[in-house]
Structure formats: structure tokens, C-alpha cells
Design a protein that fits this description.
Largest sheet: 5 strands, antiparallel
CATH class: Mainly Beta
Shape: globular
Strand content: 25-35%
Number of helices: 2
Structural class: alpha+beta
CATH topology: Immunoglobulin-like
Number of strands: 8
Length: 159
């Protein structure tokens, strides 16, 4: 009968932790969709445009100190005017308070044109029906609450 070698080494099992690692990965992957489920969409419809010229520019804000400064916006969109109504959708937002400022850039120059003493020459509007009086409204006046199911708002343009 042959003798077994005394110095034979049994290889270590490199995959012995595989089931534990697999379970941890599966647990992590099952949590990721829960974060995506919390993201919501804000649909913004701008109504009562006086012409089909130019674009409507949308600015979304999530901080009072940034509203309505163009540099402080969370997101922005430009939508070409085809009829008397346009729509923008801000997707993947976390639930919370947001404000929207829009203007109808009829001449397409990308600027909110103002005349003497800062009087607007183009139509504008804010979420929540907030009105401008000697300047833009406060964030608190324009804010809308976005829940987990999203929201749809309509902004009427003032000319």
C-alpha cells in the first residue's frame, strides 16, 4: 500500500465566504431601489403665453437664499414655444420644498429683458401664484411642497 505524503497541503477554500458576501451584496442591491422610489417628478405647465415666439426659461430652486438668482438655481430648462402653453419636467427630485421662476424669452436672447427702472419687458411668473411687487417674491411665497408621488403645478405668465 502506498504511503501518503506527510507534507501534502490541503488548499485553503478561497470561496468559503462567498455565500456571506453574496448575501451582503443582495441586501445592498435591495436597498438601492428604495432610494430611487423616494425621488419624485415636478411637472410645471406655463399657461397664457401671449405669443408663440421664443422660448420659456424655467429655473428650479430648493434654497431660499438662492431664489431667484440664476446662479443659485438647482436646475434649469429652456422649452421652445409652440402654442400658448409649454411644459417642463424636473425628474428625480427628493421630497421637499421647491420654487420655480419662469420667463417668456420672446426675442430669444437668453436674457430677462427689463426697461427703465427694472420694469420687465417680457412675461414672467412664479410657482404657487406668487406675485412680484417692486422685486421678486420671497421663496416662502413661491414654494411648493413636493411629496414622494410628485406634483404638477401651473404658472400663469404676467406681461
Amino acid at each position: 500500500m502506498p504511503k501518503a505524503k506527510a507534507d501534502a497541503v490541503v488548499p485553503d477554500r478561497p470561496f468559503r465566504f462567498l455565500p456571506t458576501r453574496l448575501i451582503l451584496w443582495l441586501a445592498l442591491l435591495s436597498v438601492i431601489p428604495a432610494f430611487d422610489a423616494a425621488a419624485a417628478d415636478l411637472r410645471v405647465v406655463v399657461d397664457a403665453l401671449r405669443s408663440v415666439k421664443g422660448d420659456v426659461r424655467f429655473a428650479l430652486y430648493d434654497r431660499a437664499e438662492a431664489f431667484p438668482d440664476d446662479d443659485g438655481k438647482l436646475a434649469g430648462q429652456t422649452v421652445a414655444v409652440i402654442g400658448n402653453q409649454v411644459e417642463a419636467r424636473f425628474a428625480g427630485l427628493n421630497p421637499g420644498d421647491y420654487a420655480v421662476a419662469v420667463f417668456h424669452d420672446e426675442n430669444g436672447n437668453g436674457e430677462f429683458d427689463q426697461g427703465l427702472f427694472g420694469i420687465p419687458l417680457e412675461g414672467y411668473g412664479f410657482s404657487n401664484g406668487a406675485r412680484a411687487f417692486l422685486g421678486p417674491p420671497d421663496f416662502a411665497e413661491a414654494k411648493v411642497r413636493l411629496g414622494t408621488k410628485g406634483a404638477a403645478i401651473t404658472i400663469l405668465i404676467d406681461y
